[in-house]
Amino acid sequence: MTCRYRVPAASLRQQSLSLQDAIENALACVVLKQALLGVGIAAEDTKEPVFVHLQSIDMRRMIEWKEVIIPAIASDTQADTKGESEDREKDEVARYEDRLLRSHEKYHEPLWDDLGGKPGWKIVVHHDLRQLGVKDGAGDVLLSLDISFCFHHAYADGRGGYIFHSDLQRALNMGTRPTELQNHILHLPKPPVLPPPMGVLIPFSQSWAFILRTIWTEVVGGLSLPLFLRRLLGFEPSEAEIPWTGAPVDALNSKTHVRTLFKLEDEARLKQILELCRSHKASLTGLLHALIARSLARQVKSRSFRSSTPISIAEYADPKVAGSAFKPGETIHCLITASSYDHNLDSTRRLRRSGDENDTSVRNDEAVWSLAREVTAHLRASKCNPLIQFPCVFYEIFPLLHTPESLEHKSKLYSRDDY
Questions:
Q1: Is residue 80 within a helix (H) or strand (E), and if so which, with residue range?
Q2: Torsions phi, psi for 135 (to 5 deg)
Q3: Taking the mean position of all CA atoms in its chain, how far away is CA 300?
Q4: Which of 192, 110, 255 is nearest to 417 (CA)?
Q5: Which of 114, 145, 238, 343 has the largest CB neighbor count within 10 A?
């Protein structure tokens, strides 16, 4: 998760701090506040991974500075008009944004190493030297940088990423250097009090229908049966019946592709879109799904397809279990489930017929808003009671179905307060 920061150069000069020291100090404050950020993971590739206490963390290993090099465009400054100068500036911004996306792809792909010796997260500070090198003693120059919070999902989810950046921003504004940070080493002599694991914190339940359906799919469906029998039992649908979807991300298929769906220039534009969503009785998530579906519908011919989205379940945390170790909205944790939605052929046909192929607007596209409302209703129905059919609890009941290669569940069965 990446956020753009504007750091006043004058503030750094008043504190006699370099930008590197300011970020290191702030990050150390966040680690001291968030217990999960101060532990490693032992036996990650087994069925019994555990968090381990790290007595010290070298903060230099947790911060990576990445210069985003954008070659300057040569120009004749005397002949440049105001319009040409603005166009050149926009082009440089676009190229920076593209390289930032490519960097996101790079850091999303590799697996985490040495999890027993250091935490499974880090930050990457993307910067343009031309901005970081500006110094003006008379004015308050803002140094612009993009900070990416990269993390193993045993530590956090999307909401946890938001909490991390909020804490980091506050720590940067406070400008405090913790006493536990000495010569780039953050000392953690006492084991942190970890928030309860998800299976304890959330009051999950299971329905017999879900258990039997999962046994049928996972156990019986996993047996080696003749093709005609698998199709007869519904384990091997025909190609036309299989919704098109992306291949799962795993160790054999770790390639990541990141694209910009649309760019909001300012907060006012975001408010306009949210107002449109409210007027059409759709959520922003529903609109995002509908926009992506419209794009795919124009590319995937004569096929239905499936989309999925994570859903936070932090609000279902049992306060009696959480205690002081977990506060919703304040404590970093991984508390999510997922919901899938199938886009049938009728829906994709309507989307293909809506608007011009090169038109990316949504204001008057009823097909897009209709689908956005459908997805929104589906997500709200899923969120009403997502705790009855939750795979991680099922895998705890039947551990033989959980393998070290099952990356999806590895991050959900991790938490035992062992040191």
A1: none
A2: -135, 130
A3: 26
A4: 192
A5: 343
The alpha carbon of 393 is separated from its chain's Cα centroid by a whole number of angstroms, namely: 23
Q: How far apart are CA 374 and CA 368, in angstroms?
A: 10
pLDDT grade for 133, boundaries at 50, 70 and 90: very low
Q: Are 175 and 15 in contact (CB under 8 A)?
A: yes
Residue 352, φ and ψ in degrees, nearest 5: -65, -35
pLDDT tens figures, 3-14? 999 888 888 888
At which residue do the structure tokens 């008057």 appear? 364
Residue 268 or 119, more confident: 119
Cα torsion angle, 381, 387, 391, 394, sign: negative
Question: Which amino acid appears at position 417 of this protein?
Answer: D
Dihedral sign, CA of 132, 60, 99, 11? negative
- Which is it for the CA torsion 383, 389, 391, 392, positive or negative? positive
| Mode of pairing for the β-strands spanning 305-312 and 63-67 | unpaired
In one-letter notation, the amino acid at residue 387 is: L
Residue type, 197: P
pLDDT for 286 beyond 90:
yes
C-beta separation of 401 from 220 below 8 A: no
Residues 6 or more apart in contact with residue 138 via CB below 8 angstroms:
none
Contact by Cβ (8 Å): 43, 50: yes
Rounded Cα gap, residues 78 and 92, in angstroms? 20
Helices and strands counted in the chain (H then E): 15, 11
| Chain segment 147-180, per-residue pLDDT in tens | 999 999 999 999 999 999 999 999 999 999 999 9
Amino acid in position 299:
Q
> What residues does 145 pair with on adjacent strands?
5, 127
